Each structure stands twice: as structure tokens, then as C-alpha cells.
Amino acid sequence: MADAEYAPETEPSAPDAAGHAAGDSGGNGQGAMEAGAESGAGAGGAAADELPGYLAWLEGYPALQALFIAGVVIALAAGLHLLTRWVLLWFITRVVSRIPTWWVAILREHRALERLVPAVPAVVIHEGANHIPHLPMVWQHLIQRLAVATIVLVVARGLGALISAANDIYLRYPIARGRPIKGYLQVVKIVIYAIAIILILAALMDQSPLIFLSGLGAMTAIIMLIFRETILSFVAGIQLVNNDLVRVGDWIEMPQFDADGDVIDISLNVVKVQNWDRTHAMIPTHKFLEHSFRNWRSMHESGGRRIKRAVHLDMTSIRFLSEDEIRYFSRFVLLSDYMQRKATELDTYNRQHCPQESADVIANARHLTNVGTFRAYVIEYLRRHPQIHKQMTFLVRQLAPTPQGLPIEVYVFTTDTIWAKYEAIQADIFDHILSIVPEFGLRLFQEPSGHDLTGLARALGNGQAATGKLHLPGPASRHENIAASTARTSPAGSPYASKPSAHRRTTDTREDD
């Protein structure tokens, strides 16, 4: 009776009972073998209780039983992975269909949700490792640690994709041109990946993450050295954005880095510039605080683009106007008011300051000049030009004489800031200015070309062959030369083909042997 009562309390298995029966005739060695058989059989019995009846035959095959359960866990993980990928993502897509479709397109482009799917089979494997029989504890812990590290990595990559998608969505809004957030989001991604690395190392080494965090203090100097450029660029990026120094789409010039073009990207470490020759210049963000640069954004925002160009006039062609020329220029629509106003002004001045008996001396009175009349013509021409800005700086000025002649500079602003249209406007203006210069008896300065030197040598050779002497114009004969040249270039009816001005001095040609 005592044996019967003891049996239910200890619940010995069949092999245990057989071992006790054999122990009546066995020695100590046999007892040790029985103890080993008892421990192994006990584990197998525990696993056998968890198996259905039609799988009870696996109790006698521990290795096969472990492989079978492991296969079930892997199959379940793969099935849930496919189920999550096909069904759950389809459901999520239907849910997010209520938000703008281009949001969904960006999320799909970055695969933000798909990157999170591998976390499901990792969770299944982590939990299934506890139900695989006869699996050594070392292997069980290793599988679970690997599963935890995989889950952390998958979540970190998923969050990184979501952050990238959020930046692309933000770029679609107008505020993104003036307030880019890509640099800040990159800092967030760096923090996420740093935390993920610490958690993965802690999981693989089976240690607390606090141990790694406590060691960061000793590594501060090394971290500062490694991430020096990143830290400087992050601080510079904050200042660039907050002070609105650079935006995506701005035209900037930084000769130090051969950058001259549009800003197409502002990231944590670099600012990407597309030059006009379609090359790209990568400039470290913190360099914008160390070096000067030119930003043309204000030019576009003002609505005017500057024209600053000069034409150089041959100073030997500058002279006073004759009465015929004054009448001729008074017929110009752009000069009629100017000529009438100047005639009245000069007549009044000369009567007050020039005695009648000395009026025939050219130096005693004021007279109209061809260069002044030309400048007045250009001013009126630009004032009436429909594509010249009237509310911005407007100058047609005479600069200091140079060895290349007298510069007459045009300093105005166009109403169109687009590059191609601006160049077309500027070219049309100077096409007209360069063509109208001979009408005023002026000559444009130009360095002698090979054709000019060849013609000069030919003319000198012909003159010497005919007379045996070299004819050179004297200093006082330049007016005759000007009159001859303008008569050839002026249209019919122009006063330049008529008699010379009363103010011109003429002398005989000097012959030099």
C-alpha cells in the first residue's frame, strides 16, 4: 500500500519503474546509468505531453522531434511574413487611400512599410525557440539574441525610410524652398542608428545597454574627432536656414570651390550646386560660414537684372555739331525735345556770358557735341524701351578715358530676370547702339586686326609707288578725315556730306620725305 501511494506522488515514468526494478540486482554503476536515463526520459516525456496523439511516435526520436518543431516554427514565421506582406500591406494601403495619393506613392517608393515586415518572422522565431525540445540552452539564447538584434535593425531601417519619405513629402510644399529640414532629419536618423547599434551589440553580447552608454563618456574625444565635420556642418546648417542665407533653387557663386550655379540640395554635410555647365560642385555646409559667397536670389525677387556694359568711342572722332547737323538731329523723334531744350539753354547762356564781338571764337561759347547728343539719344532710347525697368537705377554715363577710347557705359536694369531673355534684351539694345554710333560722326574703338594692317600696308605701298613719297595726314587734318569717313557711312540726305562745320579747322596736308 505504501508503494502504491508513493507512485502517484512521484509519477515515475515507465523507464524509471524498470530502472528501480533492475536496481534490486544492480550495483552503483547501474544506478548512475539509471539516473542519466531518468533525466533524458523526463525531458522527452515533458515534450511528449505537448504533442498530439498522432505524433506520439516522435517521443522515441529526440533529434527528429526537435527538427520537426523547428520546422514548424520556421514555416509559421514564413507564413506570417507572407501574410503580413500581402494582406496587411494591402489593408494598410486601403486605409491610407484617404490621404493624398502622392503621399502613398512616396511611401511606396521608399518602401517605408515593407521594411517593417521582416520584424514579424523575427518575433515568431524569438518566441518559437522556447518550444523547441531538446535544444541546448546556449543555442536557445543565441537564437533569441539574434532575433532581437534583427528586430532592432528592421525597426531602425523602417524608421529611416519613414523619415526619408517625410522629407520628400515636405519638399512638395512651397515652404520647403525657404526652410529645408533635410539636415535635421539626417541628424534624427543618425541618432536612431546610433541607438540601434547600441541595442544590437547589447543583445548579441547579452549585456545591458547601459554598459555601452556609460562607456560613451570615455569615448567623447574620439567621437568629437570622428564627427567633427558633421557637427560643424549641422551647426552651420542651422544658421543657414534660420538666417535664410541659402535656399534650394538659389543661384550662388563661390569661386573658391568653382561653384557657379543653382543650389539643388542642402543636406547635413554638403550643399550640392549644379553649375551652368551641368557639372556638380559639392561644398561642405560649414564652408558657407568660413568663406564669402554671392547669392543672386535678391536679384530674382526684385524683378530686375542689371545691364552694365560700355561702348568705347574713338576720341579723335569727338567734335562740335554744325548747324546742319543740329537741324538733322532735331528731326529724330527721340532727340527733338532734347535738341529744342538744349538750343534754348545754350542760346540763353551764350547771350549772358559770351560778348557779341567774341562770339566767333569757338572757345568763348557753349556748343553741342556729337558725343553728348549721342548720349542723350541712348538715354531716351532706353527710357522708351518696354523691357527696361524705370524704377531702378538708370544711368548712361561717361567713364574716364582709357587707351581704348572713351567708354560710354549703360547701367540699367531689365524687367525680366530669366537668363536667356535677359541676354536677348541686352543684345538687342547694343545691336542698336553700335549701329547708330556712325550717325553721330563717331567711331567705335577697335584694336587693329590683320585685315586692317594688310590694307594699310597695301595703301602705303601704292602711295609710294605712285609718287615716291609717303603721304601722312597732319595733326590739323583730322576733321577732313572725319568728314570723309562719315560721308561714306551716312545715308543720303545726311548733313555729313555737305560743307564742313564752321568750327572745323583745315590745313594743308603735310608731306614728309
List the strand order in the largest sheet: 4-3-2-1-5
Q: Indicate the multimeric state.
A: single chain
Rg, Å, rounded: 48 Å
Order of helix and strand elements from N to C terminus: HHHHHHHHHHHHEEEEHEHEHHHEEHHEHE
Structural class: alpha+beta
Distance between the termini: 161 Å
- Tally of contiguous helical segments: 20
* Structure summary, number of beta strands: 10
Shape: rod-shaped
Strand content: 5-15%
Largest sheet: 5 strands, antiparallel
Q: Low-confidence stretches at least 5 residues in length (pLDDT < 50)? A: 1-49, 470-513
Q: What portion of residues is helical?
A: 55-70%
Query: Average pLDDT across residues?
Result: 77
A few lines on this structure:
This protein is of the alpha+beta class and 513 residues long. The protein has helices at 2-10, 14-23, 28-50, 62-95, 101-110, 119-128, 137-171, 175-178, 182-205, 209-215, 220-226, 228-242, 287-290, 297-302, 323-330, 336-353, 370-383, 419-436, 450-467, 478-489; strands spanning 251-254, 259-266, 270-275, 280-284, 294-295, 305-313, 395-398, 406-414, 470-471, 511-512.
